[in-house]
Write a structure and sequence with these properties.
36% of the residues lie in helices and 20% in strands. By secondary structure, the chain is an alpha+beta fold. The strands form 5 sheets. Strands 5, 6, 7, 10, 11, 12, 13, 14, 15, 18, 19 and 20 form a 12-stranded mixed beta sheet that branches. α12 packs across α18. The relative contact order is 0.12.
């Protein structure tokens, strides 16, 4: 039952807008239980739908399509209606119609055609609202397709939909509709306006409290925030087709700063990642971090890179920073023949070591994720060699070197340190709907290397002494080091996102909710309709991390100085061993029930 409301707000800016434009609005709030009544009792004739399309009565056609029991057939009609709306200048109506489609691949294709059509006509433009209403029905055209003459009011409609419970409107996946009407304001049983008192544009803070999913930054911490990956992709596709930029809320994934769970929600066909979230800020290095914890938030760019690696790269990626063999040969010869001592000798050693080569595999080194793994690796080596400040729990490698009982130092010319995974495995609910990542994600490993006569690196396959204890202490205190240097938190985020993406792909979780990544898939051409991950210039070489600690030793009448030089390593991520360690945990059943009860039209929720 629809109720007629008379709105009298003479002192409000909202009423002022109504007075200036001089028209009335219809708020048609059609609950699914009403609009879909009888939808399964009979099959509607396609001739009726086509007749409404031919007459330009797109809203009526859409009402009939929504009642079709065959969703594949419904998607075909949505495509047809959207194409007609777009061809008559109603791009906003076409975008909304595409949003109704169930099949993600078909929706991506429709968005792509719409975006390409806009580019062909000179870029993204506003609809010609003097020719079409918000549903795409033609108007202001005498005797043409049943349209009626009305004022241009799309700006006000868009304003209302942006600030008054955005999740509840059809444009954003809800059930509420707003369109012109000749006599009055109708509000259905959802009662959106009844929940707003006073000036509609006055108290933005109250709107934030009532509707926390409005596109503002979070104002409080959330223990478990959920992101529907398929809804997120659909939202970004829609914004791209509209020619709009992405909000910080999307770029920073709603402020989530850790992936704890992956969930399948069959009731709403959602594939979800979940973890704690909260407001964010930029730290002194320009990284986006959680206000309370200082931990870096998850980034959309990293998520897309990890999804593509999971689908196309078999869950393997990494980097390596390595000295050049010809330089090592020079160092070897110098150590055997030079009579230089002290600072002069160390300066020459640094010069001879020269540049090391950076290689990245599995992901594009120009992406944020590619640069994170390189930076994390390099800065870990700076700490190891005493060139970057550490924490007291993790003394540098050099500070650990001492003489043994026989008066010798560890016989190591080169030190190899690298990051790898540190997961204890994955827990899963018995029905495979909830998965939990176990472990702190990242650890440091070490290996001692020797230089051969020609400068070749001879790997021992073993680590002992200072190298072993440094790696162990770095791993044990990884969380504390991440608080001091956010880059290590970013490395953990990349590892977590990659493990989640590979879990989704290998266990067929996307298939279980009918989702095939399309807009998140890798572009097949320069102008393909896919998410374009920002790319930055990346280093291919770096000066060798070289430092020394002089240990003076007296043997008889001789004084010997020992110098420790050089360090290499990288990042090695291979998800396959972790995916083989999935164990059932009935405790996760309770979390599954909580996740199902939190459904919303927004792409993320509590």
């Amino acid at each position: 039952m629809r109720r007629l409301f008379s709105v009298v707000t003479a002192t409000s800016r909202f009423a002022g807008l109504l007075a200036i434009l001089g028209f009335c609005l219809v708020f048609c709030w059609a609950p699914c239980s009403v609009s879909c009544a009888g939808s399964n009792e009979h099959v509607l004739s396609s001739n009726r739908i086509q007749a409404h399309i031919d007459a330009g009565e797109y809203a009526l056609a859409l009402d009939l399509v929504r009642q079709l029991p065959d969703r594949v057939e419904a998607d075909r009609w949505y495509q047809t209606i959207a194409a007609e709306q777009a061809s008559h200048g109603a791009r906003r109506g076409a975008l909304r119609t595409i949003g109704f489609m169930d099949d993600n691949r078909q929706r991506h294709s429709a968005f792509e055609r719409l975006a390409l059509g806009a580019n062909a006509s000179g870029g993204s433009q506003r609809d010609d609202n003097r020719s079409n209403d918000n549903d795409g029905n033609q108007r202001n055209t005498v005797g043409n397709r049943g349209g009626i003459t009305e004022a241009d009011f799309d700006d006000l409609i868009e304003l209302i939909q942006e600030i008054i419970f955005p999740d509840s409107w059809e444009d954003n996946g809800g059930t509420g509709r707003i369109r012109p009407f000749a006599a009055g304001v109708h509000v259905d049983s959802s009662g959106v306006l009844s929940r707003i008192e006073g000036n509609l544009l006055k108290d933005w803070n109250s709107l934030r409290r009532v509707a926390p999913n409005i596109d503002w930054q979070l104002d409080r911490s959330i223990d478990l925030s959920k992101i529907s990956l398929n809804r997120l992709e659909a939202e970004i596709m829609k914004l791209k087709a509209q020619g709009k930029t992405l909000s910080d809320e999307i770029k920073y994934l709603g402020g989530i700063y850790e992936v704890q769970y992956i969930m399948v929600i069959p009731e709403s066909n959602d594939l979800v990642i979940a973890g704690p979230a909260g407001p964010w800020k930029f730290d002194s290095e320009g990284r986006v971090v959680n206000v309370a914890t200082g931990r870096p938030v998850l980034l959309l760019d990293d998520l897309v890179v990890c999804l593509r690696n999971a689908w196309e790269g078999n869950g393997v990626f990494g980097c390596s920073i390595d000295p050049r063999q010809e330089n090592l040969a020079k160092v070897q010869e110098f150590q055997q023949t030079s009579k230089l001592v002290g600072d002069a000798k160390m300066s020459r050693l640094r010069e001879l070591m020269g540049l090391q080569d950076i290689t990245v595999h599995g992901i594009d080194p120009r992406t944020h994720a590619g640069q994170v793994i390189v930076e994390a690796d390099y800065r870990m080596k700076l700490i190891a060699m005493g060139l970057e400040e550490t924490i007291h729990q993790v003394p540098s490698y050099l500070d650990r070197i001492t003489y043994d009982e026989q008066g010798n130092v560890p016989p190591v010319d080169l030190l190899r340190l690298w990051f790898t995974m540190n997961y204890d495995g994955i827990s899963a609910s018995p029905d495979g709907q909830v998965f939990q990542l176990l472990g702190q994600a990242v650890k440091v490993q070490s290996e001692s290397e020797f230089l051969g006569e020609r400068g070749e690196r001879v790997q021992t396959g073993q680590a002992s002494g200072p190298a072993k204890t440094f790696a162990a202490d770095f791993t044990r205190n990884y969380t504390e080091l991440s608080k001091k240097y956010a880059i290590y938190g970013e490395l953990k985020n990349v590892f977590d996102l990659s493990l989640a993406a590979n879990l989704i792909h290998r266990f067929g979780l996307a298939d279980r909710v009918g989702w095939t990544p399309t807009y998140f898939a890798s572009p097949t051409s320069l102008h393909a309709f896919n998410y374009q991950v920002p790319l930055e210039a990346h280093p291919v070489t770096v000066m060798s991390v070289v430092n020394d600690r002089t240990l003076r030793q007296t043997i008889g009448s001789k004084r010997l100085n020992h110098h420790i030089i050089g360090v290499s390593g990288g990042v090695d991520f291979d998800v396959n061993p972790v995916l083989r360690r999935v164990k059932s945990d009935e405790v996760l059943d309770d979390l599954k029930m909580q996740s199902s009860s939190g459904q919303t039209s927004k792409w993320h929720w509590e």
